[in-house]
Amino acid sequence: MKRRLTVFLACLFLGASLAASAGPAEDRKALTAHYKQLLPGVKFQDYVLGALALNKDALDQYESIMMFPPFVNDVDDGRKTWEKPFKNGKTFASCFRNGGKKVAGGYPYFDNGVGKVLTFENALNACLRHNDEAELKYGSTELGLLSAYAKSLSDGMKVQVKVEGPAALAAYENGKTHYYSRRGQLNFSCASCHIDNVGKFVRSEQLSPMIGQAAHWPEFRAGTELVTLQGRFRQCQKNVRATPLEFNSEEYNNLEYFLTYMSNGLPMQTPVFRK
Amino acid sequence: MAEGMKIRATLQGDVADVKALMNHIMETGLRKDANTGKLIPAHFINHVVATLNGKTVLEAQWGAAVAKNPFLGFRVKGAKAGDKIVINAVDNHGEKMSGESAIV
Amino acid sequence: MRKKLTLMFALIAGLGVVNLSVAADAAKEPAGRTVAFDKAKGNCIACHAIPNDPKAESPGNIGPPFIMMKERFPDRNKMRTQIWDSTVANPRTSMPPFGKHQILTEQEIDQVVEYIHSL
Amino acid sequence: MMNQLRRTFLRSTGAAGTVAVAIAAGLLRPGQVLAAEWNKVAFDATTTADAMKGLNVAGAAESKDILIKAPDIAENGAVVPVEVTSKIPGTTSIMIFVDKNQNPLIAEFEFSNGAEGFVSTRIKMASTSHVKVVVKAGGKAYTATKEVKVTIGGCGG
């Protein structure tokens, strides 16, 4: 076991990070060890703060803004959508266990029935579908705000994504491959920044660890600009001058699955302010 | 003006700690429309008045560089639980919004 | 008017200030420096500090700072190769392959080499 | 011109007090009076010095009793939290300026009836600049400044 871990770590540093033999649990363990070494002062639960955990001045601003965030009214719009009865009188709460409270930490999950990863947004749209309502467009503000409110009902719940069975593992591995693949004219992978160079600066931007990154979406950049997790994938990939994939594409859903698995054990908080 | 001023007023000793958030675009008049290339006209809250039980405690004049969805925090001494805070705001188009809250 | 424009762009993108001020100084500075600073071109300061250039504000620290470059690269061509495609020397590098991926033209690379080698 | 006259009138009749009475008596609605009173000269000024002149606080004296809580480096220039506490007795107003903004005057806050010399807000900053605060207390003006850096984003683009 120890040897396997060492080999995996070595692979990380040498470049061949796709250690296909290691399973999700080993991946997570190895990454946790990697971050512990590179960011010795950061407590595990503070990974949810991303780069803010590395900078007191930035964290103070975050806390000042989160005390009464500029996006409260937007999230309220999401609440209205969540509470508005469908034509049949039911609401979104009827589609989720526990009325939608403390459930979002289990998403995305691999659905063996459809043979695909299902995200929380997929579940919101499935609810609309089952109630003969029109689905919301992926990447739309309305779906973003709805998911921001709905996920806030799971604040404090720990992320607990499961990867069970060969088909789920294949989806996880596909997401992982995406994470480690270089793309775009600038030739960066997600890992180039968030694993290899974590804590370092790209100009004034300090690079956050990928563990914890998936626990707080959607976020409001600049305090008022709604960005979903997959919207952030697209922004990052545009930044490296790659062609971004579509919202809700299978590969993005797999990437979300992989990334969220890596935040297992961390408390959800949605939505949040980011710069 | 869209609905939406939220006020939270809490008592700490005999000081009311008032926090308000107003839903407003706060357009500076300095930004260009990405599609047309034309300047987007300024549209911002320029006046705010807060009262405690009907008496003015704060009067503010704002320019367009107060951040979007403005936040305002202030403190009033000599307040009691149950006292009423009312905040009125008006923008440069003359549109008004207001909010009120009892101090808790 | 210039000030007005600068502010306007700053409010739009939050980034325009620097680009504009760089452009304004373009006439009197080496071409390579312009390319090195331009966010859409070299954007070298995203990752490298330039300790001797006061205009290189809040640089990144992914790569080593540009200092004593003549000593570090007695052979200028080696530096050029590194900029053109640094994955040859280190497949794990974070540095974009500026020549191979045509991020910069061959002429721009020459200009950047000239500038950085002088630091 | 009308606004100017009207403001002069309001000021000369003891502005806040009179207006408050008029509002309380239901003679005036806040928006109407206040919109007319907006200090266009000061807000349209393109230098802090001119804006201060427009507010009659030119020549404010430096004071250590004004605390400015603002970041060293702004997370985002679009939303910079700024909190000002004046420990100067008899503080009646707080003004906030950003020197490098096109229009430096951000806001003016006047306190009465028990409101403390404290205000918390969030402002837009176009670039790295001094944030200047002026406090009026006992008819005199005091000032303090803090530099806030607005930085450049990282990735390509």
Question: Could you characterize the architecture of this molecule?
Answer:
The complex is a heterotetramer of chains A (275), B (104), C (119) and D (157). With 275 residues, chain A is mainly alpha-helical. Chain A has ten helices and seven strands. Chain A has a three-stranded mixed beta sheet. A two-stranded antiparallel sheet of chain A has the order 1-2. A two-stranded antiparallel sheet of chain A has the order 3-4. In chain A, helix 4 packs across helix 6 (141-152) and helix 7 (166-180) crosses helix 10 (250-261). Chain A starts with a helix and ends with a strand. The model of chain A is unreliable at 1-20 (pLDDT under 50). By secondary structure, chain B is mostly beta strands. In chain C, 45% of the residues lie in helices and 0% in strands. Chain C is globular, with a radius of gyration of 15 Å. Chains in contact: A-B, A-C, A-D, B-C, B-D, C-D. The interface between B and D is large, with 40 and 41 residues. Strand 5 (71-77) of chain B pairs antiparallel with strand 7 (118-123) of chain D.
Layout of helices and strands:
The complex is a heterotetramer of chains A (275), B (104), C (119) and D (157).
Chain A: H1 2-14, H2 24-38, H3 56-66, H4 72-83, E1 109-111, E2 116-118, H5 120-130, H6 141-152, H7 166-180, H8 190-196, E3 201-202, E4 205-206, E5 219-221, E6 225-227, H9 229-239, H10 250-261, E7 272-274
Parallel strand pairs in A: 5-7
Antiparallel strand pairs in A: 1-2, 3-4, 5-6
Chain C: H1 2-13, H2 16-25, H3 31-37, H4 69-72, H5 76-84, H6 106-117
Helix pairs in contact in C: 1-2, 3-6, 5-6
Chain D: H1 2-12, H2 15-24, H3 30-37, H4 40-44, H5 48-54, E1 61-62, E2 66-69, E3 73-74, E4 80-86, E5 91-98, E6 105-111, E7 118-123, E8 129-137, E9 140-150
Parallel strand pairs in D: 1-9, 3-9
Antiparallel strand pairs in D: 2-4, 4-7, 5-6, 5-8, 8-9
Helix pairs in contact in D: 1-2
